Automatic annotation (TrEMBL):
GO terms for molecular function: oxidoreductase activity. It holds the Pfam family Nitroreductase. CDD domains: TdsD-like (cd02138). It comes from Patiriisocius marinus. Residues 18-72 form the Nitroreductase domain. The keyword Amino-acid biosynthesis does not apply. Keywords: Oxidoreductase. This is Nitroreductase domain-containing protein.
Amino acid sequence: MTITNIHKDTKFDIHPLLKERWSPRTFSNIPVSETEIRSLLEAGRWAPSCNNFQPWRIIWGIKGSDTYERILNVLVEFNQSWAKNAPVLMLGAFKKTNPNGEENFHALHDLGAFSAMLTVQAQHLGIAVHQMAGLKFKDALTEFNFTEDYHVATALALGYYGGEKSDLPENLQKIESPKSERKLQREFAFNGNFSETEGVQRKKQPLN
Ligand SMILES: Cc1cc2nc3c(=O)[nH]c(=O)nc-3n(C[C@H](O)[C@H](O)[C@H](O)COP(=O)(O)O)c2cc1C
């Protein structure tokens, strides 16, 4: 599966980088260079964050390195089964407190912004990013010397789009395709009061 196979039923015009992005579980075996990884991290570096606290902390490793194996080891078994083929693995952590020692309620949000910026930069390079919540976060904390003031929230598998479905366990081969399902805008965006729209019958509603 390559990026040219994507069909997303977008209702309004969006940039091709966004339209073509998806989260595959197979990757080409073309290596991702350290320079490319640095570009991705740089894109994240310029993400907006609450008070410019930049609470994200990233661990990264290239396949074949000790760090890569240590990241792989803290993923849950399901994610290990496919992420072990990715040329690059990362962990996304955040600092839970602000410089005054108070809880930073927006730190997870800001890690998400970092990951989104990194993902768009990756897409620009033809590199796919598959984020994961399925990791043993307490193990990750100790494995990589974080203190209790940090939370390891996500992992990311990265590599050029490509690879074969046969690289995957059988159960994952069946579901390896871009997701076309999305909520309609009317289900999450309100030009006025919020209203609970879960369960709306989409076919009977206007497109947006
Ligand atoms: C924070 C986060 C956690 C996720 N956790 C996992 C995971 O543990 N394992 C997995 O296979 N995919 C995981 N995903 C991928 C999502 O399932 C995927 O992004 C979603 O189905 C939409 O598909 P798309 O990214 O191809 O558009 C995660 C994505 C995000 C953003």
